Amino acid sequence: MSFTMPVKAGGFGGPRAIGVVLAELQSGANTAFQMYPGLTHGAADLLETFGSPLDHERFLAPMLAGRFAGTMCLTEPHAGSDVGATRTRARHLEGDVYAIQGTKIFISSGDHDLTENIVHMVLARIEGAPPGTKGLSLFIVPKRWVEEDGRLGEPNDVTTVSIEHKLGIRASATATLAFGDGGRCRGILVGGRPHEGMRQMFRMMNGARLAVGVQGIAVASAAYLNALAYARERLQGSSVRHFKDPNAPRVAIIEHADVRRLLLEMKAKVEGMRTLAVKLALHADLAGALQATDEGRAAYHEGQVDLLTPIVKAYCADQAFRIAELAIQVYGGAGYVEDHPVEQYL
């Protein structure tokens, strides 16, 4: 989780390109579980970039240590892709502390007992702020309040209304969360900067886009590797070289041309998608490395990141479904039943 985080923040300081490969391995093993540390990393990265030194002490260090988890709270019942329609409100109490009231839906990893605390990054509108996205601010809203000395305080009036029953990634708790139903929910303005919520949240959103793409690669790769293993061991039919001989020995289906075609298509797409994601991460690494010495080249790499981020998310997620479909075709009817793993990837 902390592999790509800066050393000064308590991370390892590793390159994002290697981080993508590690994330694929973890997601390929268990996509749903990987969402918990994945979202925590995204929230921690946001806090490291925009949070105050006190925010770092109270939240960033415990998140990187695995004591606190993190989430991203944007979507509301009437504000999905129209984020500017957000109705969650923030009322100033003192300093950077605000009273938060509103409801967020489809919050991945929204509630669980894997960690001591959950740090929700919540978009809300401060009283009197302008309408639309320009009036949104970002708040740190912990499930349990964290005192300035790091001690855990009382529950912070964050209620889990429901857990969604989903088509897939069922081990990832997707929650509807109510903030401040009892009038006691408090949030801390990120970095003490009002009306910059969208700019701040886009940092985490872009990280999440890459993570979705990597999830797609992981699922596609797992489906391909399982189909490949099955094709090597499943005996069916004779070789095309002896198809007229009823006594010819049965061969593994990987020797049949159409099965080889399916496997080759899966392999080509998986390796291409992986290369694209690593290329995107490498551009991000180079943009950061060159920022202080060559602004022109750094800007080029930042432009490549902006270009490739939506492509990696959309293409890899879409092709994961197509590749899982091909994997089921390799298995035939066996791919449709739970005795084999590929049905869960579709």
Quaternary form: single chain
Outline the low-pLDDT stretches: none
CATH architecture of the largest domain: Beta Barrel
Q: Between the first and last Cα atoms, what is the distance in angstroms?
A: 27 Å
Largest sheet: 5 strands, mixed, barrel
Global outline = elongated
Number of helices: 6
Question: Which whole number gives the mean pLDDT?
Answer: 94
Q: Please indicate the count of domains.
A: 2
Beta fraction: 15-25%
Estimated structural class: alpha+beta
SSE ordering: HHHEEEEEEEEEEHEEHH
Fraction of residues in H or I helices: 40-55%
CATH class of the largest domain, named Mainly Beta
Would you give an account of this structure?
With 346 residues, this protein is an alpha+beta fold. The protein folds into two domains: 7-195, Butyryl-CoA Dehydrogenase, subunit A, domain 2 (Beta Barrel); 202-345, Butyryl-CoA Dehydrogenase, subunit A, domain 3, CATH 1.20.140.10. The protein is 45% helix and 21% strand. It has helices spanning 16-29, 31-50, 53-64, 197-233, 257-290, 295-331, and strands at residues 68-73, 89-94, 97-108, 117-126, 136-142, 144-146, 152-155, 158-163, 174-179, 186-189, 235-238, 250-252. The strands form three sheets. A five-stranded mixed β-barrel has the order 2-3-10-5-4. A two-stranded antiparallel ribbon has the order 6-7. Strands 11-12 form a two-stranded antiparallel sheet. Helix 1 (16-29) crosses helix 4, helix 2 (31-50) runs antiparallel to helix 4 (197-233) and helix 4 (197-233) packs parallel to helix 6 (295-331). The protein starts with 15 loop residues before the first helix and ends in a 15-residue tail after the last helix.
